[in-house]
Amino acid sequence: MNLFNLSWVEGMFEKDNKSINWDLLHNYMVFSKYGKMRKSANILNISVSTLSRRMEKLESDLNMTLFRRHTNGIAFTEEGYRLAEYCKILDGSIAEISQAMRLTEHNIRKVVRCSIVADIARYLIIPHLNNFYKDNPNILMEMDTSMALVDLANEDWDLAIRFSRPEKGALIVKRLGSTRIGLYRHQDMPLNSGDSIPYIGWHNKESTFLPNQLTQKIENCTEVLRVSDFAEVILAMEDKVGMGFMPDYVAKQFSHFIYVDLPGIYRDVDIWLVVREASAKAPHIKRFISFLSDIFSEFE
């Protein structure tokens, strides 16, 4: 029988008949499949008397007799058999739809949109991302590593990784870990007592900018280069142009960078994960948060 050739079934619900009650039809579908009132009631998790009343209600709604009741049980009428056949088609089609939806869900890539500090992305997240993708092939990461501070409560981003903790908004906040930002030099760059320290400065001259705050604490220093991007600090240090401030998780990636231990010339900074409440319950977001927690637990 063709699922889409249901004119006979449609005729049941025309004119004086009521609109189809899918709950009753589902109960009939189960009963027609197993043929036993008690077994069908157990599968539906209802009592036999409730199932019997629902079958009577379906007959009333359809204005036709679906069963013949006798001392040995219940037998289908011709109309009951015909409806049972269509229920088999419907049951099979529902199973096909469910399977198709599961395949669609499996094949659709879920996107995690993350605003993240560039050097955290470059030195902590991206090096581990391939392992995450192996376990989660249907998740796509979209990263914004610009300096702009996105408003998670009002913009279409799922989460952010920041050095500052937000104070308001419909957000879930979690401390991922901490890092020490200090002064480093190339191991082949000499540092003699009493010499002026050649440091790499920044175009950002705001007093709240952490490298500026730390530089002001150095008694004897000379700015040898001014940059706007952290990658330039790394390149200049590689070429022994000067010394630069960086988080310890970056310095650990370069075995030839040595910490310059000057009293008070460092700052311990917390790293915060901020998640939109609307995104936090999504399974793919939860998996990415778990991935982040694992990375930072290893780092600390």
Rg from Cα: 34 Å
Mean pLDDT: 84
* CATH architecture tag of the largest domain: Orthogonal Bundle
Helical content stands at: 40-55%
Low-pLDDT stretches: 1-6
What fraction of the residues are assigned to beta strands by DSSP?
Answer: 15-25%
Characterise the protein shown here:
It is a single chain. This protein is an alpha/beta fold. The protein folds into 3 domains: 7-106, Orthogonal Bundle (Arc Repressor Mutant, subunit A), CATH 1.10.10; 110-174 and 274-299, D-Maltodextrin-Binding Protein, domain 2; 179-269, Periplasmic binding protein-like II (D-Maltodextrin-Binding Protein, domain 2), CATH 3.40.190.10. The protein is built from 11 helices and 11 strands. The strands form 3 sheets. Strands 3, 4, 5, 6, 9, 10 and 11 form a 7-stranded mixed β-sheet that branches. The protein has a two-stranded antiparallel sheet with strand order 1-2. The chain has a two-stranded parallel ribbon with strand order 7-8. Helix 2 (22-34) packs across helix 4 and helix 6 (118-135) packs across helix 11 (283-299). It is rod-shaped. Mean pLDDT is 84; it is low at 1-6.
At a glance:
With 300 residues, the protein is α/β, with parallel strands linked by helices.
